[in-house]
Amino acid sequence: MQISKHEEPMPALQRKAERLHQNPDLATPSSKKQKVMPSEMQNRASKSKKQSLSKHHLQPEAQRCQEIDEEVEGEESERADVEEKISTLQRIVPGGEDLGVEKLFEETAEYILSLQWQIKAMRALTTFFEGLERNTRKLGG
């Protein structure tokens, strides 16, 4: 390469880059050089592009699949929890084992109201008997 008086000398790296740009085969070591046909170059480029795309697109897709699996597992776990609670409720509510879920809920509401009335009655009786005991003490009994 001759340098004329009007050209400035090129740095070595810039000259090497230009040569590589003009002849890409220079970039690979001579022991690995192979003749590559243009169609094969396109196939390689296409394959490499597909691989890079699949890496970028598969990761979110795989992550989404994992999220769906976790959702399904979560729903199955919730369903098992609900079934266990219904089973417990059937044992607590008198006659609950023979009831369907809708009727079980109605009976549960009625049973809760019944228990609340029983609590009020017991408090009233407790208050009544405490009053009787105080009166008996006052009278010296």
Automatic annotation (TrEMBL):
Under the heading CDD domains, the entry gives:
bHLH_AtIBH1_like
| Compositional bias per record (Basic and acidic residues), positions renumbered to this chain | 1-22
InterPro entries in the cross-refs: bHLH_AtIBH1-like, IBH1-like
Asked if the keyword Lipid biosynthesis belongs to this entry, the reply reads no
> Which keywords does this chain's UniProt record carry?
Nucleus, Transcription, Transcription regulation
What processes in GO biological process is this protein linked to?
regulation of DNA-templated transcription
Q: Does the keyword Transcription apply?
A: yes
Subcellular locations according to the entry: Nucleus
Give the residue ranges for region: Disordered.
1-83
Q: Name one GO cellular component term.
A: nucleus
* Comp. bias intervals (Basic residues): 46-57
Q: What is this protein called?
A: Uncharacterized protein
